[in-house]
Structure formats: structure tokens, C-alpha cells
Design brief:
Shape: globular
Structural class: mainly alpha
Pfam family, one: YqgQ-like
Distance between the termini: 24 Å
Organism: Salipaludibacillus keqinensis
CATH topology: Helix Hairpins
Strand content: under 5%
InterPro entries: YqgQ-like (IPR009256), YqgQ-like_sf (IPR023164)
Number of helices: 3
Order of helices and strands: HHH
Protein name: Cytosolic protein
Number of strands: 0
Helix content: over 70%
Oligomer: single chain
Largest sheet: none
CATH class: Mainly Alpha
CATH architecture: Orthogonal Bundle
Radius of gyration: 11 Å
């Protein structure tokens, strides 16, 4: 899964995340994914893949700095 695919998936739940700050976007996405999982709206496999995508994106950001 890519960052783009994850953001497109979030839109299916009417969740549009864009703050202009990629780190803040990742924080908000992580919170939303955790909430969707807690509510049983996504399965554990998708939750895991989404979390890994967020972790990878954070690593890319830290490598740039």
C-alpha cells in the first residue's frame, strides 16, 4: 500500500486529510485508522498494512531531514 492509496481509501469514509504538513497528515491518518479499526470498520490485515505505510512515510520524511 502506498501513501496515495491510503489517502484514497480514507476518502471512502469522507475523511480528507491535508494540513500542508506531511508529518501532521500522518499523525491524523494514524488516529483515523486506529479509530476505524477500533470500530470494526477495517480488518486487522488492512490496519497492519496502513500502519506500515505510515511508518514507511515517516522514515522517508526523517531521511530527508
Amino acid at each position: 500500500m502506498t501513501y496515495f492509496e491510503l489517502s484514497q481509501f480514507m476518502k471512502t469514509f469522507q475523511t480528507y486529510i491535508y494540513t500542508g504538513n506531511r508529518e501532521a497528515d500522518l499523525d491524523l491518518m494514524e488516529e483515523e485508522i486506529q479509530e476505524l479499526f477500533r470500530l470494526g470498520m477495517i480488518d486487522v490485515r488492512f490496519f497492519r498494512d496502513a500502519k506500515l505505510t505510515i511508518i514507511k512515510e515517516r522514515q522517508v520524511l526523517s531521511d530527508k531531514n
